[in-house]
Write a structure and sequence with these properties.
Blueprint: E1 2-7, E2 9-12, E3 18-26, E4 29-35, E5 43-45, E6 59-65, E7 73-85, E8 88-98, H1 101-109, E9 117-119, H2 121-126, E10 129-132, E11 137-142
Parallel strand pairs: 4-9, 5-8
Antiparallel strand pairs: 1-11, 2-3, 3-4, 5-9, 6-7, 7-8, 10-11
């Protein structure tokens, strides 16, 4: 079994809430990810993904996505040959793309960097993630 540990920051969003943010590299470029255990799928911001890939056209996802405020959204997807999160590699990864501008606009108001991606339960469960709030680390235990 292989292990990867990535530090994260706990960001206070308002008087009652927190977000977990990690910084990783995608195609050798810094990416800011929001760890979101309530998201069934990990998604990229469809406007910011162009920072990481040279493609300009993405395939339309045939289903409407729900979540992120319970609003139905039209999504797209693309496939990466390989993505890395820390030292962990995922090959032939289908990345779903949604418009995350509402999150990024909120982050801008409170002085946070924009989110490139939401890291959801699909990867967290698949790679046996452990979130340690005290140590502020995200650990993956995978084969």
């Amino acid at each position: 079994m292989m292990k990867t540990t990535i530090p994260f920051k706990i960001i206070k969003i308002d008087d009652e809430g927190f977000h977990l943010l990690i910084k990783v590299y995608i195609n050798k470029k810094v990416a800011h990810l929001l760890i979101y255990t309530g998201a069934s799928k990990s998604v990229f911001d469809k406007n910011r993904i162009k920072k990481f890939v040279s493609e300009n056209k993405f395939e339309l996802h045939d289903k409407l996505s729900t979540g992120l405020g319970s609003k139905k959204m039209i999504g797209h997807f693309t496939t990466f040959k390989k993505i890395k999160i820390g030292e962990m590699e995922i090959k032939d990864y289908t990345a779903f793309l949604l418009n995350l501008s509402s999150i990024n606009e909120s982050y801008e108001v409170i002085g946070l960097p924009p989110i490139d991606r939401v890291l959801g339960s699909d990867i967290l469960v698949l790679k046996n993630a452990i979130i340690d709030y005290k140590k502020q680390t995200l650990k993956f235990n995978y084969f």
